[in-house]
Structures are given as C-alpha cells and as structure tokens.
Amino acid sequence: MSRGSNPGKLIGVASHGNQALTSVTGQNDKSVVVTGCSSGIGRCIALGLANRGYRVFATVRQHKDIDALARDGLTSLQLDLSVPASIDQAVSAVLRHTGGKLYALINNGAYGQPGAVEDLSRDVLRAQFEANLFGTHELTARLIPVFREQGTGRIVQISSILGLVCLAYRGAYNASKYALEALSDTMRLELQGTGIFVSLIEPGPIESRFRANAYRYYQANIDHTHSAHQESYRRVERRLASAQDASFTLPAAAVLDKVIHAVESPKPRIRYLVTVPAHGLARLKRWLPDRWMDHFIRQFAG
Fold first, then answer.
1. Which residues pair with 55 in a beta bridge?
2. Distance (Å, whole) CA 211 – CA 168
3. Alpha helices, DSSP H, located in the chain
4. Ramachandran category for residue 36: left, alpha or beta (phi over 0 → left; psi -120 to 50 → alpha)
C-alpha cells in the first residue's frame, strides 16, 4: 500500500461507458463492491458485473493499479484489507457516493503464502490471515448494517476448494480459507430472515496471477535452504515458476458465472464449486475415510 495515497479517493469512470451499461440492463441503481480487482478473478468479476449494468466499485491494494481499472470504465479505489484505516476510508467513500446504499459485496481480495507449516513464522501466518480473513471480516461487518437497514443484500465470498480440502505446502492459505468458510457458514445462520444472502464460491485452478504472486511470497518469507523440506520445496518452486497451467484450469469467467447467479438469483446457492478438480475433491472429501483421502491427495498433488 502506498502510505502517502488516499485510500478513500474514487477514480470516476468515463460517462459514455455508464450510459452504455444503463441502456443495456437498467441495473445502474445497484451498487456492488468487489475487492482484489487488479487482475484475474477480481478484475473479471468487476468488468462482468459492470457490463450487466451494476455500478461497480472495484478495489485494489496498490494505488498504481487504479488507473488501469479507470481506463476500463470502472470506478476504482484503493483498499488494503490488512490496514483498518484503509477499510474505514474505503467504506466511507463508497457509502458517500451511493447515498448509504449497497446491493452486494464480493470479497475476492486474497493471496497465497506457500510453505510447510513448520516453516511459517507467526508474522507470516498473521499476515496471511490479515489479508485473507481479518480484513475481509472487518469490511463485511462494516457493511452488514447497511444491508440490514435496506432489508436486502448479497455477500459473496470467493473462497477456494482449499477451504474444504487441504493440500501440502499451502498451510497458511488452507487455514485462512477454512476459517473464511466457518465464518461465512456462521454468518449465514445468524442472518437468516434478514433478506441478506451469504454465498461461498470455491474455485479450483483458475487462470490468474495467483501462482506468480504466491511465488514472490514464498521467496520473501520461506527459508528453504535450512528447511527439512528442501527436496519438496524444489518441486514447489518448479510448480510456482512454471508458465504451464494446472490440469483442468478454467478462465476467470467461470467464477464470474457463479457470482452472477449468487447476486441475481432469488434463491442463491450456499456453495458454488468451480472446475472439475473442485467438484471431484469435494465429493471425495465426503465419501472417503480420512486416511484414504490423505493417500489420494498425496498422489493427486505429486
């Protein structure tokens, strides 16, 4: 986050883009906040919802990414989920520009911290949770009263199949997504009857910069040279540095399709699985004994 920048400053969209969206769908009175929009899934969701006529507030962690979203016709603002002041300023800015109303919140902002569990320092694990869970929770809790007052709202959590099934050397990310799933399930029970729907989207491999970003965090935070996992880390490094996508990887539009259903269906689903591996692993998790599941995952993940 650029400390000298103003997280609450909105960058406006081109007026002709708004007019085109309004004429196509007529949903321009519905405002939506999407986090983590600099690339990949978040950017695809923001653009896809804007094309359906929603007024999208696309947030990014770094100020340098704002201009690119504005050129795409999106209203963009800075929001660093690990900084409470940034969350506060972003919420105030959005509600000021919407007259205190909001239709939906799509929590997508997150990153992956690779590394064996025993090699994760407290600070590294805390940073993963600050971005992937604590910031998302704080933002959501700030906006639930807005939804309550309206008597309606949609909260869509972009989780992961790793919130249901753990893979080795992804412990920090696994834990953050498991926690997000638990908070979301609890929140759904507590919000029953309020008109606020909570949905979880659980993708498998999706085309994005996620793996490249994870490699940066691995290099910065994991001392692989003094680890008992050196041999395994060589495989981790090859996977993270590879330009080849994992099997059954889908474009980010596959997640967008589920988001659209979650925000527009009169009865959105509680969970949406995305990609063949996500569907397969979720079923095996339900069917197999734990030891069998461990064996399968070791074979599946190499």
1. 31
2. 15
3. 15-25, 40-51, 66-71, 84-98, 122-129, 135-150, 171-190, 210-221, 230-241, 253-264, 276-287, 290-300
4. left
What is the reported pTM? 0.88
Cβ neighbours for 24, distance < 8 A, ≥ 6 positions apart: 51, 52, 53
SS3 111: coil
Rounded to an integer, the average pLDDT of 89-113 is: 96
Closest Cα partner for 114 from 207, 1, 234? 234
As a whole number of angstroms, the distance between CA 63 and CA 230 comes to 36
Dist CA 55 CA 98 (whole Å): 9
* Of residues 139, 151, 65, the one with CA closest to residue 106: 139
pLDDT of residue 301: 75
Active centre residues (catalytic): 173
Band (214; pLDDT cuts 50, 70, 90): very high
Half-sphere exposure of 20 (CA within 13 A, CB side): 9
**Cβ proximity of 5 and 63 under 8 Å:** yes
Q: Are 32 and 56 in contact (CB under 8 A)?
A: yes
Closest by CA to 49, choosing from 86, 85, 24, is 24
Neighbours of 140 (CB within 10 A): 18
pLDDT tens digits, 218-276: 999 999 999 999 999 999 999 888 867 777 889 999 999 999 999 999 999 999 999 99
Each residue's pLDDT tens digit, 42-72: 999 999 999 999 999 999 998 888 988 988 8
Q: Output the CATH code of domain 15-208+247-300.
A: 3.40.50.720
Residue 63 in 3-state DSSP? helix
Q: H or E stretch including 225?
A: none
Q: Which amino acid is at 168?
A: A
Q: Answer positive or negative: Cα dihedral of 42, 73, 259, 101.
A: positive
